[in-house]
């Protein structure tokens, strides 16, 4: 099927609203192009690329996008996933395989309803998609609050990257306007951004390193991910993050004081 309405295309460009789509280490320019096409099908224009294998810009992406250059022209490139999502308040990671992490697992439709409610309340949300061959790495999944899976034929559930992007973005497009739900933050403090959360994680991890908490270097990566997942389930506000920094600093300071007194 084909169809381009220039007036509606201009409207999508002006709006620029909706979730950011973050492609982590996409391998082929053609796949980036078809993802851009899927995004624009659903009115989304915020494309973020983390270490694209074949570099950027990429002419093969343009030819595969079927005219979705509006998305490609706005695409931004980042060195790390944490940098790509730093300004977001809520991130959903897509995965086809069960992972050993304690996180809410949603269908694309349920996630879209949540995302729309967050968006209506002024929160910035994002969608993480992993490399074509391997999917997202565990360290990237640990940066997301929730996981998205797409129920398909269990005997053959393989999707290419653009299909996955289209299915999730389509569900977003179908939700329309949904008023903020009760799970959203209330009060005077806004939800913490990903940059603020990652800064807190690194602060805590540095102090834990200093105390010898990580007794096994082999197990340290999984322990770090588990702590990050645990803290993210708290859905902290910006004020709560600052309070947590203060708690860590106070505990470390008291321990140092006791050492000096001893």
Any overview of this molecule?
- The chain contains 11 helices and 7 strands.
- It is α/β, with parallel strands linked by helices and 262 residues long.
- Helix content is 48%, strand content 11%.
- A 7-stranded parallel beta sheet has the order 3-2-1-6-4-7-5.
- It folds into 2 domains: 6-175, SPOUT methyltransferase, trefoil knot domain (Alpha/beta knot); 194-261.
- Helix 2 links the parallel strand 1 and strand 2 (47-50).
What about the largest sheet?
7 strands, parallel
CATH class of the largest domain: Alpha Beta
CATH superfamily of the largest domain: SPOUT methyltransferase, trefoil knot domain
Structural class: alpha/beta
Query: Roughly how many Å apart are the termini?
Result: 77 Å
Beta strand count: 7
H/E topology pattern = HEHEHHEHEEHEHEHHHH
Spatial shape: globular
Q: Stretches where pLDDT falls below 50 for ≥5 residues?
A: none
Q: Taking strands numbered 1, 2, ... along the chain, how are they ordered across the largest sheet? A: 3-2-1-6-4-7-5
Into which percentage range does the β-strand content fall? 5-15%
Q: What is the residue-averaged pLDDT? A: 87
- CATH topology of the largest domain, by name, is Alpha/beta knot
